Amino acid sequence: MSLFQLFPMATILRSLHFLIILYVSNIPLAFAQNENQFIYNGFLQAKLHLDGSAKITSNGLLQLTNTVNISYPQVGHAFFQFPLKFNTTSSGLSPSLSFSTNFVFAVVPQVPNVGGHGMAFTISPSSNFTNVVGNQYLGLFNSSNEGLTSNHILAIELDTALNPEFGDIDKNHVGIDVNSLNSTDSASAMYFSNKEGKNISLGLTSGNPMHLWIDYDEAEKLLSVTLAPKGIPKPNRPLMSKPIDLSQYLLESMYVGFSSATGTLVTSDHYVLGWSFNKSGQAQSLDVSKLPPLPQQRKTKEIPVLMIMVLVIAVILVLITITGAAYIIRRKKYEEIREDWEREYGPHRFIYKNLYKATKGFLDKELLGAGGFGKVYRGILPSSNIQIAVKKVSHDSKQGIKEFVAEIISLGRLRHRNLVQLLGYCRRQGELLLVYDYMPNGSLDKFLYSNEKPNLNWLQRFRILRGVASGLLYLHEDWEQVVLHRDIKASNVLLDAELNGRLGDFGLSRLYDHGTNPQTTHVVGTVGYLAPELTRTRRATTCTDVFAFGAFMLEVACGRRPVEQQGLTEEVILVDWVFECWRKGSILDASDPRLEGNYVVEEMKLVLKLGLLCSQSMPAARPSMRQVTQFLDGNANLPELPNEGGCFGTFKGNEAFDFLLSIPSTSGKGSAASLSSTDSILISGR
Prior knowledge:
It catalyses: L-threonyl-[protein] + ATP = O-phospho-L-threonyl-[protein] + ADP + H(+); L-seryl-[protein] + ATP = O-phospho-L-seryl-[protein] + ADP + H(+). The radius of gyration is 44 Å and the shape is elongated. Mean pLDDT is about 80; it is low at about 20-35, about 520 and about 665-685. It is α+β, with helices and mostly antiparallel strands. It has 14 helices and 29 strands. The chain folds into three domains: about 40-290, Jelly Rolls (Sandwich), CATH 2.60.120; about 305-335; about 440-660, Orthogonal Bundle (Transferase(Phosphotransferase), domain 1), CATH 1.10.510.
């Protein structure tokens, strides 16, 4: 019995028709699995792995992103569901990296000709992209893995946004990306017209379908990318030809597909209309006549002119308000106090804004020191690149500030190589800012007492003593007025880059004319440097400065402070101890043990004896600073010291503090100065 007798002819024909349809619909899958090739003229029957916003539309378009109801950056991926064999070198087989693919795509922006952000053909070791970011990362990377060699990703980007951080050439280009969005090669979107024999530009965001061919020749290690409008045959010249060895980047098993991303404000619909791929030869040509059509582009709703005007006016008002508020806040931030009498001091007044920028907003990391008079900050003037130190001193503008500023300006005219230069001032909101030269090596006491600084040798110490003496002589006798420093000590001697000593901190200084009596009654200074006559007269003179300089000389030579605590109640007075060493005939025993005997004996004896001579109880018995400099320079012989210890006087610690507590805390000059062992602030580096 024949087959036609058993089954009716219609049944047989229906069965054959079903088998043919089933066979045809599974051809792409068979190619992909057996011969590593496939072709999709539309994606209705495609077996793809989709994630994110990617989907296949009802008419067969592969839509990676869309612009409907978007409130966050979109990411869409579409990969062939099975991995393909690429780099088989690791398996011992011959390499088979050559591949060919072509596809038709379209970028339809929400706003005409404004892309956001782009799409890419991708070869990746995985089809799972879980931690990627949209926007400029195109759904391939994030900020932490972008550029890593472990990515093993090759992408041909169709970029419609300009991202300078990735070195984009423009907002309409094609790029070859290897593990990074910093393209190894890129070119503006265009194609070579075979008919006209020239390149013609293309707009990726035109919304028109375009055809892209990607071919890699393993033998020549050459990657070629060719672009053209849909329906035009493949141009004779590629857009890019990049020599590259993909065996360094691709693994044995890789996925092929597409990735796309949008921004939040600027978005695009990214479509793929058809796709052909071949891992073993030239990819088949797409039949563009069978590709599904793009949806009709939505027309932008016309906004009434009146509404546009209202929006523009509202935006302008908001901008004016913001600008005005910013201006007021900025002025408040840099607001200064300026009065008419300050006009004559114009050249000496610094702009607060410049000081603010110089000190980086008075950051704590720029803080050099702090004390009873305020804080000091390091800074660099933005206009001249000069290093400065800025001291912030609290003041009451109602109490003698005019006279105090006048003194500051006078002190600013001082010019001596052994004085820290006072450059000028600024006033702002209850603060007086004094600007000084910056001393990079800090204060002398750090070298004498801190293990953080290197030990100073005798040559350096003796040069510092002579320099400070010269500066003090200039203050007392060689300038147009007499300047009383009133707080000479190691912490107020600053060292420049060559370790030359400079006397600083004139916050306690006072001026008076030559030949007149100083009327300073507000006693200030530091315990151990205060002359004993201050208990009677409460009046600072050049003699009290000499007394303090004597204590300073002994401090430098002995490496000890003028008053040191020994035990719970006992105090060692440096002047008494040095005198005792001299009386016993062993004055060199008072020298700083850190010097280990490496000093000029005659110079050490001179400094110790001169320190005692300056520390005599009677002011008239002390030498002047001119005599002191003559002794130090070897131009005069040092007189004999008195044998009585009572001739040398200083406050004992408790006596000094009892005396200081009895002194009023206000100043006739409004300087806000008050006595403390921390009153002097370093104008220097730490």
